[in-house]
Amino acid sequence: MIRSSIDLMLKAGAAALAKNFESRDPIASQREILARLVVTAAVTRFGRDHGFAELAGEPFDRLYAEFRRRVPIRTYADFWRDYFSAWQSDANGSQRLLLEDVTWPGRIPFFCETSGTTAPTKYIPFSREMFAANKRAALDLTACYLHRTPRSRLFQGKLLYMAGNTRLTDLGNGVQSGDMSGITLRHRPFYLRPFVAPGMAVSALPWEEKVVELAGLLLSDRSIRGISGVPPWIILLLQRVEEMGHRPIAELLPNLELIIHGGTSMKPYRREFDGLFPRRRPHFLEVLPSSEAFMAFQLPGEDRMRLVPHYGAFFEFIPIEDLDEGGTPAPDAPAVPLEAVETGRRYAVLLTTCAGLWRYHIGDTLRFTALSPHFIEFTGRDRFLDRFEEKVTQGEVEEAVARLNQLDGIEVREFMVGPDIGERRHLWVLAVGEMNERSDDVLGRHLDATLRSLNADYATFRSQGRIAGPRVVTVSGDVIYRWSKEVRGKLGGQSKIPHVDPTAEGEMVASLAAFADGFRPAGLPTASRNSAPRDG
Predict the structure, then answer these.
(1) Does the reported pTM lie above 0.70?
(2) Longest dimension (CA), the chain
């Protein structure tokens, strides 16, 4: 009775919140946010260094031009060198980090830890203002979902949140660090606790144990109506539910109505989701959160995400062709605000946020497909596959695997591609299902043909012999996760398998291929170790 009453109250308020969201002017929001951020941070060390007090009250055009002139584009390494490292210390073998009035007023209470692939862990500041902005984004998304799905019973039950590790590290002076999803789950508002599963005890378990407990929870608690997580981990969880329940997922979870997914493209996993839900599909909504800011989400009835520039972050965009060969912009690289973007172009994203990041290059790229609303597609990280100057994007790589999964007799569950420097070719490791009927050589031909059709530079280089045909290594579905756990030391939650090797010389994909050699299942059709599609 209480849940039904709350559900009615939520739906009553959802319409007003949804209409308010739809009526907001994205350009006006961005202009207001930049002016507010500059004024607020004028008292900080960063604000004094860049003369923010002099910019107060300026019209947007003049403010933005001067802001861009005074504040160079920075990477994390630049921020660490110029501002963060001076406030780091070690006490009794434990790291301490205290940012107070450095790049944002007051003390930063949280740091989101993001794993560096070739560098130490990054500590992304997460202020109380950013926490509040993220909650507003989540509230707007929920309101729009309830408003556009009037028969929803989502809040008559619970949302299963596949968070990362919820253990937080004490950095001293009341400051904590950890996985962003773990921070969010631990410090969620008290009034949401009855609507979110699992509890803290399960959330803190090691990943393999957590998946078993979550599957058991889904089977035993019919009030769970939604799941939020990264696509491959959601698939893994649902498959575990089927294994434990011995029936199709649609029969085992009849009340599941919503899957919220983000963190990596859905394209390579769509076929597996279709297989899990052959008839009645739950609603799928894609989100684009990051440790730096909440950037985009999808609304029911729309097939793409919208950029949502209302939540404490000012966006700038750099055309991808203006990045260097390592995917990094120059400090004065040509950037444009939201009002000047064009459809069809691929952009790297800069963020200025209410957590004290200023013109920060986050490493993600996107493409605008419409401007009213600002529909986008996430096109991956801006360290693309370019060791041989071929400029293959992560989006093209994921599209190639998605097309592979449309073929009969193949099911790619996870993958990674990177350069094989010595052989001047791409090395693909494909984690496949049990029913793989295709040889590595045939799979390589399909991937090669798709990339030729998608990328003119790649097609030219292949025809000129500047890049050899790809080598494919297939392994069983669990091997890539074993490698991630045993070699990378990362598994589950918000940790994702990089689809494009982010290392400079292909060290990561080579490590995976070497690890996989010891686990190739008997009878799996393969080509020889050095085989590759013939040129032509």
Answers:
(1) yes
(2) 71
Helix-helix angle 26-40:60-70, to 10 degrees: 50
Return phi, psi of residue 122, to 5°: -90, 145
pLDDT in tens, 170-209: 888 889 998 888 888 888 877 777 888 888 888 888 888 8
Tokens, residue 329: 């912009």
CB 430 within 8 A of CB 367: no
Q: Do 414 and 497 touch, CB atoms closer than 8 A?
A: yes
SS3 55: helix
- For residue 20, the number of C-alpha atoms closer than 13 Å in the C-beta half-sphere is 12
Distance separating alpha carbons of residues 142 and 165, to the nearest angstrom: 24
Read off φ and ψ for residue 43, nearest 5 degrees.
-85, -5
pLDDT tens digits for range 42-84: 999 999 999 999 999 999 999 999 999 999 999 999 999 999 9
Q: Note every long-range contact of 272-278, with CB atoms under 8 Å and residues 24 or more positions apart, other chains counting.
A: 272/235, 272/405, 272/411, 272/413, 273/231, 273/235, 276/235, 276/238, 276/239, 276/242, 276/249, 276/250, 277/249, 277/250, 278/250
Q: Which helix (H) or strand (E) holds 231?
A: helix 231-245
- Reading the block at residue 467, the tokens are 């890049």
Question: Taking residues 421-436, what's their average pLDDT?
Answer: 87
Half-sphere exposure (CA, 13 Å, Cβ side) for 118? 11
Q: Which residue in 105, 112, 284, 274 sits closest to 184, CA to CA?
A: 112
Nearest to 385 by CA among 499, 508, 513, 265: 499
**What tokens does 325 get?**
């060969």
pLDDT of residue 495: 65
Q: For residues 413-438, b (16+ Cβ closer than 10 Å) or e, as one string? A: bbbbbbbbeeeebbbbbbbbeeebeb
